[in-house]
Write a structure and sequence with these properties.
By secondary structure, this protein is an alpha/beta fold. It folds into 2 domains: about 70 residues, Alpha-Beta Plaits, CATH 3.30.70; about 270 residues, Alpha-Beta Barrel (TIM Barrel). It is built from 17 helices and 11 strands. The longest helix has 19 residues. It is globular and about 55 Å long. The protein starts with a strand and ends in an 18-residue tail after the last helix.
Length: about 425
């Protein structure tokens, strides 16, 4: 494989302009999360092949683009990994895969599937510890903390697993006003949270104009980062929301298996979901996706395909949680997804995608009191608080018995996992790291 290079720009707008120009001049490019040694993962770099390096340099110089630089895209290795595993009771196949991880080689679908199927205590321990080491070398020990405001539980979709689906009898439907949302935003800003996640069902009440007005107000009053999670939209809408100030977009793929996707999403189309992810990438969003573990009919091979999708799409943030049935839905009697398989998926995703943010999801905390701690010790590096106002939050039940993660429980999970709190959090004395 020939050497790849990455172009690091000073801003997202510069990156998009440079990428557009390079493509117009027949330079093959890809947009990927910025390697941690060159900046934050939650930004995007332009990847090019060795054959196009000279041409790209000339084009950017002639276009008067000021870039931070064009750097070799180094393979992330784990030096000394095999030495650390020498006393472990592991199979030869496991050893061979770990040798590839040590040298930074890409894993095949069969190898990813093998890791997802490991069951022995020794191999599980080795898998989680290797993923945790990869996490430490790439993003360090500080756990990123974000917070979600679930501002509407109306939805025009009928996803079979979802507790706020169209037609589902939820306790009470609600929509928050702009002022109510802003009250929550200001409270998060007060405790130091840097990014607010605005999440809802696919609710047409919140038009493009309404969302743009809200985004601009948040930026004007707090300058916080904004993650939107409001479902499938058109390219033009995504573009307008980005131009208004949205930074990140969360649109989970849920599964890349076409048959399972159709089974769980009777009124959605997998190819359109993929197209949305591509649009978000092209528009320069910090692109977030994720899947559910334990969906009806799902195999380890399907999860392996999901992981390869994240890598190929250049996803920045990947949320992986167990399927949890929701009362009143067509899937309410299906079995819950496995915590162990979820943790394996987190670990393998870290080893394959490497340079990404992986949250220890709320869903894990909802089925295992120590679920978030376990995920943080298996490759995850972020947490999301549930900051929906108390009078509404019990009605936003995508799945039943949801754990309402607050700042105290997040701090506890971080402490218990032996990880570090971000310095931007403004905590009281009882919450401070010892």
């Amino acid at each position: 494989m020939s050497q790849q290079y990455i172009i690091i720009c000073y801003s997202t707008s510069q990156m998009l302009r440079a990428d557009s120009l390079l493509k117009a001049m027949d330079v093959e490019t890809d947009l990927i999360p910025t390697p941690s040694e060159h900046g934050t993962i939650c930004s995007t770099a332009i990847a090019i092949g060795e054959k196009d390096k000279g041409k790209a340099e000339k084009i950017l110089a002639e276009g008067n683009f000021a870039v931070k630089g064009i750097f070799p895209h180094k393979t992330r290795k784990l030096s000394g990994l095999m030495e650390s595993l020498k006393n472990c009771v592991i199979s030869q196949t496991f050893k061979d895969i770990m040798k590839k991880v040590e040298s930074g080689e890409d894993l095949t679908k069969d190898e990813i599937t093998y890791l997802l199927k490991v069951e022995g205590e020794s191999e599980l321990k080795a898998l989680f510890e290797t993923a945790d080491r990869m996490r430490k070398e790439i993003v360090g020990d500080i756990v990123e903390v974000r917070a979600a405001i679930e501002f509407s539980n109306y939805c025009n979709k009928s996803c079979h697993y979802c507790g706020i689906r169209n037609g589902c009898t939820v306790p009470t439907r609600y929509r928050m006003t702009e002022d109510e949302i802003m009250e929550g935003v200001h409270e998060l800003h007060r405790v130091g949270i840097k990014t607010v996640v605005l999440q809802s069902g696919e609710d047409d009440y919140y038009t493009l104009e309404v969302l743009i007005k809200l985004i601009k107000r948040i930026k004007r009053e707090t300058k916080m980062g904004i993650t939107l999670s409001v479902g499938e939209r058109s390219y033009e809408e995504y573009k307008a929301l980005k131009e208004a100030g949205a930074n990140n977009y969360l649109l989970k793929i849920e599964t890349t298996n076409p048959d399972i996707f159709k089974f769980i999403h009777p009124d959605d189309d997998l190819e359109y979901r993929r197209q949305c992810a591509q649009w978000l990438k092209e528009l320069g969003y910090v692109n977030a996706s994720g899947n559910m573990i334990g969906l009806p009919g799902q195999r380890a091979e399907d999860i392996a395909e999901d992981i390869l999708f994240y890598k190929e799409m250049g996803i920045h943030m990947i949320g992986i949680g167990p399927f949890i049935p929701a009362a009143g839905t067509p899937f309410e009697k299906y079995p819950q997804g496995s915590v162990e398989m979820t943790l394996k998926a987190v670990a393998v995703t870290r080893l394959v995608c490497k340079n990404v943010f992986i949250p220890a999801t709320t869903a894990l905390a909802s089925v295992d009191p120590d679920g978030q701690k376990k995920a943080l010790q298996a490759g995850a590096n972020s947490l999301m608080l549930i900051s929906t106002p108390p009078k509404y939050r019990s009605n936003y039940q995508i799945y039943s018995n949801k754990n309402m993660i607050d700042l105290d429980s997040a701090v506890k999970a971080i402490h218990d996992a032996g990880r570090k709190l971000p310095k931007y959090l403004k905590l009281d004395n009882n919450q401070q790291e010892e």
